[in-house]
Specification:
Largest interface: A-B, 22 and 27 residues
Number of helices of chain B: 0
CATH topology of chain A: Immunoglobulin-like
Oligomer: heterodimer
Distance between the termini of chain A: 39 Å
Structural class of chain A: mainly beta
Order of helices and strands of chain A: EEEEEEEEEE
Number of strands of chain B: 11
Strand content of chain B: over 45%
Helix content of chain A: under 10%
CATH topology of chain B: Immunoglobulin-like
CATH class of chain B: Mainly Beta
Chain lengths: ~110, ~110
């Protein structure tokens, strides 16, 4: 079971770029890295997924170094509505499920 | 249209009661899940079904029994509720068991008093 470690909380201001780094030292060869976002009283929402190098979509970018022992979620120009908990997840090899850590609470201020 | 819907959204009940939470997905997905989120916001998988068949059963008390009448539904029945069962329960679905892009329901906040 690949364990993830990420900061408990982060603060930012509107318009700034936010980078949240997650470590997953014992990630397996076939594991993918997934990031989800959860607003209060809502279910988690898939943001981005990657295996290595860089992945970009309309919401975020995901940077994964060659050793894949960490990953960084990058949110460009955050707004107040980006205030949420962000989970770094590693696929359980053989189970194809998402194992959630404790997440990072991102607070965006005006 | 809600992709993954759970009912009820809130459930308050007394210890010892039996309750059910229903989940339906209209995405045509083959795989469905139940997750439990405790007071510390830690999400943990409980069960996973693929085409109505149980494929994952984590360390969950026998009082919890999932039922999947068809692949669009995965209900969670809980017997003899205990105080420690209080949590938010999330249903989710994914295209198949190899796809980890999961779509979650809004959650059911269960409070046992």
């Amino acid at each position: 079971l690949a364990k993830t470690t990420q900061p408990i909380s982060m603060d930012s201001y509107e318009g700034q770029e936010v980078n949240i780094t997650c470590s997953h030292n014992n990630i397996a060869t076939n594991d993918y890295i997934t990031w989800c976002q959860q607003f209060p009283s809502q279910g988690p929402r898939f943001i981005i997924q990657g295996y290595k190098t860089k992945v970009t979509n309309e919401v975020a970018s995901l940077f994964i170094p060659a050793d894949r022992k960490s990953s960084t979620l990058s949110l460009p120009r955050v707004s107040l509505s980006d205030t949420a908990v962000y989970y770094c997840l590693v696929e359980d090899s053989g189970y194809s499920t998402l194992t959630f850590g404790k997440g990072t609470m991102l607070l965006v201020s005006p | 249209d809600t992709a993954v819907s759970q009912t009820p959204k809130y459930l308050v009940t007394q210890m010892g009661n039996d309750k059910s939470i229903k989940c339906e997905q209209n995405l045509g997905h083959d795989t469905m899940y139940w997750y439990k989120q405790d007071s510390k916001k830690f999400l943990k998988i409980m069960f996973s079904y693929n085409n109505k068949e149980l494929i994952i059963n984590e360390t969950v008390p026998n009082r919890f029994s999932p039922k999947s009448p068809d692949k669009a539904h995965l209900n969670l029945h809980i017997n003899s509720l205990e105080l420690g069962d209080s949590a938010v329960y999330f249903c989710a679905s994914s295209l198949d068991r190899l796809n980890t892009e999961a779509f979650f329901g809004q959650g059911t906040r269960l409070t046992v008093v």
